[in-house]
Amino acid sequence: MLTLPPFEYHAPTSVEEAVALLGAHPGAKLIAGGTDILPNMKHRLLSPAHLVGLKAVRGLSDMKEEDGCLRLGAMLTIAELAKSPRVRTLFPSLSRAAEQIAGPQLREMGTLGGNLCLDTRCIYFNQTHFWRKALGFCLKKDGTVCHVVKGGTRCVAAASNDTAPVLMTLGATVRLAGPAGGRELPIGELYVADGVANTVLRPDELVVELRLPVPEGRVLAGFQKLRVRASIDFPLLSVALAAKVEADGRVDWLRLAVTALGARPHSLGGLERFAGRRLDEPLIAELGRLAQKQCHPLGNIDVEPQWRRQMLPVLVRRALAEALTVPA
Amino acid sequence: MRERPAKVVVRLEVNGDRHQLAVEPRTTLLEALRYELGLTGSKQGCDKGDCGACTVLVDGRPVLSCLTLAIEAEGRRITTIEGLAKGGKVHPVQDAFDLSGALQCGFCQPGMMLSAAALLERTPKPTRREIKEALSGNLCRCTGYKQIIDAVELASAQRALPERDERPTTGASREG
After folding, report:
1. Does A147 reside within a domain?
2. Which of A209, A285, B39, B130 holds its CA 20 to 30 A away from the CA of B107?
3. Host domain of residue B129
4. Structure pTM?
């Protein structure tokens, strides 16, 4: 039996009210679906004195096409994303990622905004207080040492959200609400390489909406996830790929993002070299090697980093194969 | 030590009955069901969202009551295993679990049955794959999955029949 620490609960009905509550109660945390923050609170990884619930906030669960973008409200559930015919048609890789997040009940509860703001995960962090105390705690919480990187001074707990790499390859932007009105960022800029707090969200800001530009021309996209149990687990690696292909079969642009490495999803660099090439066997092999060169799985997940590293080119190949089979 | 926040009044609609409870904001729906209302059918397994033993239906959708705040379940229609049978008659899923021997220790069974009942509401004739997917958030540590999946198939067939007497037997279903 794992009890929650005590807190006061607030149920704002508007975004402005939610922002004001966050400002009025320093240290307050947001709760959307609760599937990430509640187990973490039960493990005493955080014990906020105030929780601000988002379920009653109006207008955060909308999905609409506008100005060449699909706009997704932050409180859309993962199940709603996975089941949406519109998302499936326009952004099949996002559909595929959503349907592979956690298990059925957690998808009904968890939200898009919650997945984007998922706390980073590490085998030395996602444990009970008793367990962590026995080990002498760690950089992310209560301690001063890193058990993953010997002598490490920066937390490398893994970004474990499956939607983030997909949204990065699709050129999505995220809209944040805050006391000064709000701001909009490319999704990749939401994250920083610090496992303790891996987003640029300020304490009184919240994610309200995602905007995905509707692809023009032929855009192929695939998603692959490596996990121990295909039915429920967090990723050991998630690989998202998108490529715009011209009528003659040549690549216009290619993007690849990988998560479950360090604190932020990694967007592969140097992919301009593939422009003008065909999505053929040599390209797949080269892309796999490049991914292996740039991505370094760590001991922050309870599975051999070496095996995860070897699986990278395999997942790249599968993601591309999937992209080629989904009608664009 | 931080001062305990005051209790709040929460109105819950569980299995068609309305309840008014005074609980701490940190009370989960599972704790409210088990310890305030005495509905101990929903099981407290891992208590952190891994096992599915605490699955209940909220507005017909299967969710984990161990990760739901009671205060956030206000105004929702909650169905627990105690509310699955209607008018003195067991739910087809319950009947099929019985006929198929789809339980050993029984701990996962309430959650399994609610996930299965929710599946049959939205997909009356599921494939075996769809059944497996729908139950993939419910762990059975006795690993009696085959009979459980058989039971959901049987329940699907039974729901289509008007009378209990005309139900196919487990054996017939397996051969068919």
Report:
1. no
2. B130
3. 92-160
4. 0.94
